[in-house]
Design a protein that fits this description.
- It is a single chain.
- The chain is globular.
- By secondary structure, it is α/β, with parallel strands linked by helices.
- The two termini are about 40 Å apart.
- The strands form three sheets. It has a four-stranded antiparallel sheet with strand order 7-1-8-9, with helices on one face. Strands 4-3-5 form a three-stranded parallel sheet, with helices on both faces. A two-stranded antiparallel sheet has the order 2-6.
- The protein has eight helices and nine strands.
- It has two domains: about 120 residues, Ribulose 1,5 Bisphosphate Carboxylase/Oxygenase (2-Layer Sandwich), CATH 3.30.190; about 80 residues, Rossmann fold (3-Layer(aba) Sandwich).
């Protein structure tokens, strides 16, 4: 049964005429009527059903307006880079010892960064890290010798963009408490990344079929893209 709070929210919003992100944002914020700081979320539907193959997107975007989240970062590297990783803000740092802990099921991080030379050893734990989405990947910037940059990106608001098997992409833009300016910056950053990814795949027609915006406990609205992606 819908709560009294939810019953007071607008109904059948998906039938409304699509509006630009800038125009609908204030309405979405007004629907954040819970006592906690609700998240502002996007849901993209991509045109992944192609004749030859399905499109699988996996990339990262640096959110210029931040995410409001603290990310616990683990780093696997050589002894010579351990101090650099710690000074850059890594929460857990190690080499063979950390790999062994992961092997035993001790995973106390939300993002894992690894240097190329250590990936040979870490790759054996694909069955452990893969299903959790924690296996470092060069495309995502998490397999690198520049551990300082990777840690800074992870801590400052880097978000992964990845579609599921049905072609859906869910992305959190930030919180209701964020300024409109920062939420708009994050939204535009995501569109720029998707536009860039479109040029890297073979797609017939537009990559993005539709996009909706909602808050954690609110209702969704269809957005109008100002240009085709």
């Amino acid at each position: 049964m819908p709560s009294k709070r939810f019953k007071k929210l607008p109904t059948e919003t998906k039938k409304l005429k699509p509006e630009s992100f800038e125009k609908i944002l204030s309405t979405v914020k007004k629907n954040c009527t819970t006592k906690f700081d609700e998240g502002i979320d996007l849901s993209f539907r991509i045109n992944n059903k192609q004749k030859k193959n399905e499109i699988n997107l996996r990339t990262v975007v640096n959110m210029p307006g931040g995410t409001g989240k603290k990310v616990k970062v683990g780093v696997i590297c050589e002894d010579s880079k351990i101090n650099t990783a710690k000074e850059a803000g890594a929460d857990i740092v190690g080499g063979d010892d950390l790999i062994e802990k992961i092997k035993e099921g001790e995973i106390n991080f939300e993002k894992l960064i690894c240097t190329p030379s250590m990936m040979i050893k870490l790759s054996k734990l694909g069955k452990v890290l893969g299903p959790k989405g924690l296996m470092p990947n060069p495309k995502l910037g998490t397999v690198t010798d520049d551990v300082k940059k990777a840690i800074t990106n992870a801590k400052s608001g880097q978000v992964e963009i990845r579609n599921d098997k049905d072609g859906n992409i869910g992305v959190n833009l930030g919180k209701k408490s964020f300024s409109d300016e920062n939420l708009i910056k994050n939204y535009n950053a995501i569109l720029e990344i998707l536009e860039k990814e479109k040029s890297n795949v073979t797609v017939k027609g537009d990559l993005i079929k539709s996009v909706f915006i909602t808050s954690s406990m609110g209702v969704s609205y269809k957005l109008k893209l100002l240009k085709n992606i």
